[in-house]
């Protein structure tokens, strides 16, 4: 069995935040949106249906719990959860807090405008906020 490694494009475009029971949690490097990516630590998986039923449920639990908590903590108007994989085939789930009037509203965030990279202070602040949210969820218990 091969070892899990996140796709190089995901690594290049995001910052590691923490490890959840199933997924590696990363923050996309676009400060315009609170945008997380969950990457299940399962090598050579590109589709949700390739996971067994229990693992699919865990992926959904992690994505929805993190998303709901982020939406509440950051005061968003809408939560977008999606798995596309058109550019990066490795299975990953986007969790994006949206606000009316954000840089792409109401369109999808993909390919809209120019990404705004995090500066070090803003990155540290967002990582700390995400970690506080994740720690409050007690995800280790499987929810």
TrEMBL record:
Coiled-coil segments on the chain, per record: none
Q: Show where the HIT domain sits.
A: 36-105
Q: Tell me what this protein is called.
A: Diadenosine tetraphosphate (Ap4A) HIT family hydrolase
- InterPro entries associated with the record: HIT-like, HIT-like_sf, HIT_Hint
Keyword Cytoplasm applies: no
Q: What is the native source organism of this protein?
A: Halomonas ventosae
Keyword Hydrolase included in the entry's annotation = yes
Give the domain of life: Bacteria
A GO molecular function term, named singly, is: hydrolase activity
Keyword annotations for this protein, in alphabetical order, are:
Hydrolase
Read off the SUPFAM superfamilies from this record: HIT-like
